[in-house]
Amino acid sequence: MKVAVVGATGMVGEVMLQVLAERNFPITELIPVASERSVGNEIEFKGNKYKVVGMQTAIDMKPAIAIFSAGGDTSKEWAPKFAEVGTTVIDNSSAWRMDPTKKLVVPEINASVLTIEDKIIANPNCSTIQMVMVLAPLHKEFDIKRVVVSTYQSITGTGVKAVRQLENEYQGAKGEMAYKYQIHRNAIPQCDVFEENDYTKEEMKLVRETQKILDDRTIAVTATAVRIPVVGGHSEAVNVEFEKDFEVSTIRQILHQTQGVTVQDNVDTFTFPMPLYAQGKDDVFVGRIRRDESQPNTLNMWIVADNLRKGAATNAVQIAEYIVANNLV
Ligand code: 2RA
């Protein structure tokens, strides 16, 4: 199968190639795509070298699937052109996520919404994916009323410029700034730009995407997204109020049985998820599961995942695996 990876030389694009190789995705021809300045560069995939090509060249090669991680503007312009030649696009940007005609998919939760007509499929935001992976099975059982989430997000979510800023600051060197402020020994309560309501786009993604993926606009969500000097993954403190009461042991049991979720939860042995140990893994890790004693039917949890893997590349590849396995491409 001909597969294009658009944004192949970027941070997420490189992880996409790594995941495609690890999972032995059935690729007969890889088409690495990047901006004109990268055309002609070589990348290595499964021991073979491939030359990076531009968008139109890739479209003319008519790939079956194109996995995009190249920013919203690029996706808005080029995803429809791939779709016009019959390619199924899986896009990691925010461009299509809230488009009512496009599906927003976490395979373990709602892959069944996909049909052969879906030629542009949206990959949710990383901080949303890890949260709904834990919320979805609990929503089914206890009916979520409200979610309050605070995120502690890796600088890798911003990209290589942020990684370089932290390295420079750590070494006391000057350099290009990805953020308005120093990130070393700091926490910045701003991920992405502010909207009219004084929430950031990142915070509103957690609100809007959660409701779309769980297909329930009655779920109230409020979020605070914070950037911290960590590289292994995003962490989230999640407070969930349900319509129904629960036993914490039942919550743990449900999550233990949820594919793609690993429970790490034992305060006696200081066992709980941390980004240092989630890095490079595809599961979503949950711990610090405890009743919120300040109000009925409410639970606190701590959720950690590698934002470049399940939060982006792996989820996108799993969507590709699903459409191949179900003859939707
Ligand atoms: C971030 N989730 O972490 C956003 C985009 N990757 O900045």
TrEMBL record:
It is an enzyme of class 1 (oxidoreductase). This is Aspartate-semialdehyde dehydrogenase. It comes from Flavobacterium terrae. Catalyzes the NADPH-dependent formation of L-aspartate-semialdehyde (L-ASA) by the reductive dephosphorylation of L-aspartyl-4-phosphate. Pfam families: Semialdhyde_dh, Semialdhyde_dhC. Phosphate binds at residue 97. NADP(+) binds at residues 9-12, 37-38, 307. It catalyses: L-aspartate 4-semialdehyde + phosphate + NADP(+) = 4-phospho-L-aspartate + NADPH + H(+). The active site is at residues 126, 234.
